[in-house]
Amino acid sequence: MLLYPSIDKLNEKEPSTYSLILLASKRAHEIQAYKDFKLDAYKSVKPVGQALEEVVAEKLYIQED
């Protein structure tokens, strides 16, 4: 169960749940493969949770054309 970050905070940053899932999954793969962290500290130990924390911290977003 996902407690942090809350889905409400995530939807404020990215209203499309589909886009949010794609963004988090791709970033989680990068975190696992390259150990490339954008935050100094994470509450979550799993890469998907860490990616979602980056979304809330506005370190990760979808670039619009």
TrEMBL record:
GO biological process, one term: DNA-templated transcription
Homology family: Belongs to the RNA polymerase subunit omega family.
Protein name stated in the entry: DNA-directed RNA polymerase subunit omega
Taxonomic classification: Bacteria, Bacillati, Bacillota, Bacilli, Lactobacillales
Domain of life where this protein originates: Bacteria
Organism, scientific name: Suicoccus acidiformans
Annotated transmembrane regions: none
GO CC entries: DNA-directed RNA polymerase complex
EC number of this enzyme: 2.7.7.6
Pfam families in the cross-refs: RNA_pol_Rpb6
Subunit structure: The RNAP catalytic core consists of 2 alpha, 1 beta, 1 beta' and 1 omega subunit. When a sigma factor is associated with the core the holoenzyme is formed, which can initiate transcription.
Keyword Flavoprotein: no
Protein purpose: Promotes RNA polymerase assembly. Latches the N- and C-terminal regions of the beta' subunit thereby facilitating its interaction with the beta and alpha subunits.
InterPro entries xref list: DNA-dir_RNA_pol_omega, Pol_omega/Rpo6/RPB6, RPB6/omega-like_sf
